[in-house]
Amino acid sequence: MDSKNVHIKFNTDDLAVPEVVVEEDESRHVTFNPKGVCSVKIDYDIDAEGKLHNVAFVGGCNGNLKAIGKLVEGKDAKEVADILRGNDCAGRGTSCADQFAKSIDENC
Fold first, then answer.
1. Which of 72, 70, 61 is nearest to 95 (CA)?
2. For residue 18, what are the contacts with CB-CB under 8 A and spacing of at least 6?
3. For 41-53, what is each residue's pLDDT tens digit?
4. Residue range 46-72: mean pLDDT, rounded
5. Of the candidates 34, 37, 74, 40, which has an alpha carbon nearest to the alpha carbon of residue 54?
6. Which among 67, 68, 69, 60 has a CA at the least distance from the CA of 40?
7. pLDDT for residue 10 is more than 60
8. Is 104 exposed, middle or buried (0-12, 13-18, 19+ CB in 10 A)?
9. What predicted TM-score, i.e. pTM, was given to this entire model?
10. Predicted pLDDT at 4
11. What is the distance between the alpha carbons of residues 84 and 6, in angstroms, rounded to a whole number?
12. Cα separations (Å) of 5 from 52, 53, 81, 91?
């Protein structure tokens, strides 16, 4: 589901003819079902500038995955994916972080 926030700015320099500028916030929510890891779902938002927000993992190593969410809050999604891509957990060939990177790659 896409959500749009509309911000309205008024130019008060010319009170006789106020200028209205409408900006749309094109943030969107992503839900991803990772494969081959303990986490069963990854939820996050990507804003119009490609920044990550509200990252949450369901299942997996709770403390570590909460830490990832805090560390990536407001960061550029593509940069985060570049850092996390290829991370391996217990010889699985992937990890929750790697699956998060895969989701970003598919959704950015």
1. 61
2. 10, 11, 12
3. 999 999 999 999 9
4. 98
5. 74
6. 60
7. no
8. buried
9. 0.78
10. 55
11. 33
12. 16, 15, 26, 43
Name 35's Cβ contacts closer than 8 Å, sequence gap at least 6: 94, 99
Alpha-carbon gap, residue 48 to 66, rounded angstroms: 24
pLDDT at 14 over 60: no
Whether the pLDDT of residue 31 is over 50: the answer is yes
C-alpha–C-alpha distance, residues 69 and 73, integer Å: 6
Distance between CA atoms of 29 and 43, rounded to whole angstroms? 7
Q: Which amino acid belongs to residue 20?
A: V
Q: What is the pLDDT of residue 7?
A: 52
User: Are 95 and 88 in contact, with CB atoms under 8 Å apart?
Assistant: yes
DSSP H or E stretch at residue 78: helix 77-84
